[in-house]
Amino acid sequence: MIKEIYFAGGCFWGVEHFFKSVHGVVSACPGYANGQLDNPSYEQVYTDKTGHAETVRVQYDDARIGLQELTSLFFATIDPVQKDGQGHDIGTRYRTGVFYKEQEDLPVLQAEFAHQRTLLAAEDPAAEFCPELVPLKNFYPAEEYHQKYLDKNPGGYCHLDFKVFVYRDLYQDAKALIEGEPDPVARMSEVAALVHERMKFFWTGFYRVLPAVSTGTELVLGPFQGPAACLRIPYGRGVCGTAWKQARTIVVPDVEKFPGHIACSSLSRSEIVVPVFAQDGTVTAVLDIDSKELGTFDRTDAAFLQLVVALL
């Protein structure tokens, strides 16, 4: 069945370009939503006086992709704490939100919004969550020159970092490659290889929660790509052990400034660690990625890598 959902994620050129290549999406149409003026022009919306938000109507085949997955991909592309804008684009027309037509979609959207609020609170308890979740009042397709703008203008402006599109394809490829594989080590191996090859990181791998040599449990080296690494990491130690203990993603711009950092390699300068959760919410492993450069990782990396490890 073909269904519709409407995503406002800043400038609609990039949002359309992102969703049009998501597997299961039938069409992505940029336009103007939830304003007071009928059939507005771009020039009118640009004044910020019509109340419209630049929005993309996403039509999708719900037999191939669900609303929850689409919405989680949407959240991976936005900064949820930036109010009335995204990146350098400022104004109410660039506000973020999800607009729905069918009441039956609301519980799915509410659950995903609650999940995203939880992720943000773990990252920054004081941060304000800005995206709207409201019914669609109206939608007007944008002028023809806005349709498929980045296809017509490959070097044109896009507020989304190029790696957003790399991660989109990486996520979809990982999903296809490990679907149906029951062995967790095989799935981790495939994901580690795919992330490492696509993103060109220094070290990419998993540590699994397994019995310790003496008592209790600890992180034990699993499938990885890169140079030799630490074999075991105690609970609460280093970035990996801390991410396990706190059950949250940790982004470290400079590993030398992280208290208790475990230097498995002196070449590592920045790091991100993403927990892998079981269905009961317990941490079963962590994905650990290192870079030779300072400040490599940001919210985009965290958001998409969380989606990737959720496939496991």
Q: Can you describe what's shown?
A:
This protein has about 300 residues and is α+β, with helices and mostly antiparallel strands. It folds into two domains: about 1-160, Peptide methionine sulphoxide reductase MsrA (Peptide Methionine Sulfoxide Reductase, Chain A, 2-Layer Sandwich); about 180-310, GAF domain (Beta-Lactamase), CATH 3.30.450.40. Helix content is about 30%, strand content about 25%. The chain has nine helices and 14 strands. The strands form three sheets. The protein has a six-stranded mixed β-sheet, covered by helices on one side. Strands 11-10-9-14-13-12 form a six-stranded antiparallel β-sheet, sandwiched between helices. A two-stranded antiparallel ribbon has the order 4-5. Helix 4 links the parallel strand 6 and strand 7 (about 130-135). Helix 3 (about 65-75) runs antiparallel to helix 9. The mean pLDDT is about 95.
Which helices and strands appear, and what pairs or packs with what?
Elements: E1 2-9, H1 12-19, E2 25-33, H2 42-46, E3 53-61, H3 67-77, E4 85-86, E5 89-90, E6 96-100, H4 106-123, E7 132-135, E8 139-141, H5 149-152, H6 162-178, H7 184-199, E9 203-211, E10 217-225, E11 232-233, H8 238-246, E12 250-252, E13 270-277, E14 283-291, H9 299-310
Parallel strand pairs: 6-7
Antiparallel strand pairs: 1-3, 1-6, 2-3, 2-8, 4-5, 9-10, 9-14, 10-11, 12-13, 13-14
Helix pairs in contact: 3-4, 3-9, 6-7, 6-9
